[in-house]
Amino acid sequence: MTKILGIETSCDETAIAIYDEQQGIVAHQLYSQIELHGEYGGVVPELASRDHVRKIIPLVDAAFKQANLSRQELSAIAYTQGPGLIGALLVGATIGQSLAFAWKLPSIGIHHLEGHLLAPMLEENKPEYPFLALLVSGGHTMLVDVKGLGDYQIIGESVDDAAGEAFDKTAKIMGLDYPGGPILAKLAEKGTDVTMRFPRPMTDRPGLDFSFSGLKTFAANKITASDGSEQSKADIAKAFQDAVVDTLAIKCKRAIKQTGRKALVVAGGVSANLALRKKLAELMSSFDGEVFYPRHEYCTDNGAMIAYAGYCHFKQENNQLPESYPIRVHPRWPMSEAFS
Ligand code: KG4
Ligand code: ZN
């Protein structure tokens, strides 16, 4: 039975998981560096790298313990090869390649976004290929027509800030704690002002691209003009969130019409957003289609999605032992280059 160790260190989560062909995810370990970066209001790359170094080996040990497996039972090692912070990626790649070399196993470098795209496949109710994917994370916003494993066509993406980035930056402007996205979303639940309306950027022209950078400026102006009360803050948060959610839904609708896909996969950290989930469920039911999400812990960065993507490629491709184990990462790695 194939068993894959997955290593994810592209940003501020050290995450290790083991995927078993028969049983699914049998180990899932994650250490979040949120507290470490909290006082700086954003991820400090050098601190992230150093912390990955500290946590990664204990987490690998813990994963084997959790799965009650020995390393001899492993089939291959998958690690995130990019995109991400270079130092952080290098920690995962170095450990992944070194363990694979020492244990005489094939190793598989995974594109982080492919991990997110495939994460819903870990659920019992999973989509069939082909499907449309909306990838909404802190670093990326894109619509991908997924025709099969490794066959990904980007049909729309953000020309500036990613959706998660827009949430985080707007939260920072509003004086919310780090990481701001989920906190802003929580605050938005208390918003009641239905007259406040933010623009829906780039929806007045054809196409599937997004632009979110203007929304934070819009929010900043609203805050300056407000009375500073908690209720005003909640109203601004709601109006901002409504704009992001609506904009994403409008583009999804166009993409569904364009591709004729019946299944929509939503992945990446922002897919945890409840308002977005509600809106997209309504949208897909109007098309007689279905939306698929990873469970909460597989929405944000995790090792399970890397182990699973590694498993898919291990099965599909020739996995001879390599002659060497080069440690090579791609901090910037367009999907169009990775899967051409
Ligand atoms: O996929 P992810 O964990 O990391 C990246 O690869 O970027 O996504 C993190 C992003 C952050 O910007 C965070 O603020 C956002 O996802 N996020 C949310 C929510 N939960 C996480 N944004 C809006 N609403 C949420 N509930
Ligand atoms: Zn991610």
Tell me what the structure shows.
The chain has 340 residues and is of the alpha/beta class. It folds into 2 domains: 3-117 and 298-338, Nucleotidyltransferase, domain 5 (2-Layer Sandwich), CATH 3.30.420; 127-293, ATPase, nucleotide binding domain (Nucleotidyltransferase, domain 5, 2-Layer Sandwich). Helix content is 44%, strand content 19%. The chain is built from 12 helices and 10 strands. The chain has helices at residues 34-38, 45-67, 86-103, 112-118, 163-173, 180-188, 213-225, 230-259, 274-286, 296-299, 304-316, 335-338, and strands spanning 3-8, 13-20, 24-32, 76-82, 107-111, 131-136, 141-148, 151-157, 263-267, 290-292. The strands form 2 sheets. It has a 5-stranded mixed β-sheet with strand order 3-2-1-4-5, sandwiched between helices. Strand 6 and strand 7 (141-148) form a beta hairpin. Helix 4 (112-118) packs across helix 11 (304-316) and helix 5 (163-173) packs antiparallel against helix 8. The longest helix is centred in the C-terminal third of the chain and has 30 residues, at 230-259. The mean pLDDT is 96. Residues 11, 137-139, 164-165, 167-168, 179, 181-182, 185, 268-270, 272-273, 300-301 line the site of 5'-O-[(R)-(carboxyoxy)(hydroxy)phosphoryl]adenosine (KG4).
